[in-house]
Specification:
By secondary structure, this protein is of the alpha+beta class. The chain has one domain. It is built from 4 helices and 8 strands; from the N terminus they run E-E-E-E-E-E-E-H-H-H-H-E. It has a 4-stranded antiparallel β-sheet with strand order 3-6-5-4, covered by helices on one side. Helix 1 runs antiparallel to helix 2 and helix 2 runs antiparallel to helix 3. It is globular, with a radius of gyration of 16 Å.
């Protein structure tokens, strides 16, 4: 194998990584399909997240549980598309609602899911803002 660079470029802040492709239908409709290296959102609402995608799980002072992971994955992917400027900011509250619905489907207690959704609505706008892209770090 040939080394093309003596430095690495990376982003920090991730806990989980998909080991298989994932597909989920969302209630978001767009005019043109969106494709990135790891995420595709199609006009019909099909969301594809590819193997290797990394995300940080639920944010805030919380305990990650199996009932929280799928919702956090879909939510993080949608917010990433907003941060990249590929999805309108107006979709943010829809993304929050989708996460809530997934949490309930996956067995999260309703009171916990409602508190999380309320917290997202109140404090998560910064995470969808294009000004808050994760910085590229370099080592050594």
């Amino acid at each position: 194998m040939m080394v093309t660079s003596s430095i690495i470029k990376y982003k920090s802040g991730y806990k989980y990584q998909l080991v298989e492709n994932f597909r989920f239908d969302v209630s978001i409709r767009i005019k043109e399909d969106i494709h990135t290296d790891y995420i595709s959102l199609l006009k019909d609402g099909s969301l594809y997240i590819r193997k290797g995608y990394a995300w940080d799980g639920p944010s805030g002072p919380t305990i990650d549980t199996k009932s929280s992971l799928r919702g956090s994955l879909v939510h993080d992917a949608l917010y990433q598309l907003m941060r990249m400027g590929l999805l309108e900011q107006e979709v943010r509250l829809i993304a929050d609602k989708i996460a809530y619905e997934i949490w309930i489907t996956d067995g999260m207690l309703e009171i916990r899911a409602k508190k999380w959704q309320a917290a997202l609505g109140r404090w998560a706008a910064f995470a969808a803002n294009p000004k808050n892209q994760k910085p590229i770090l370099i080592a050594p």
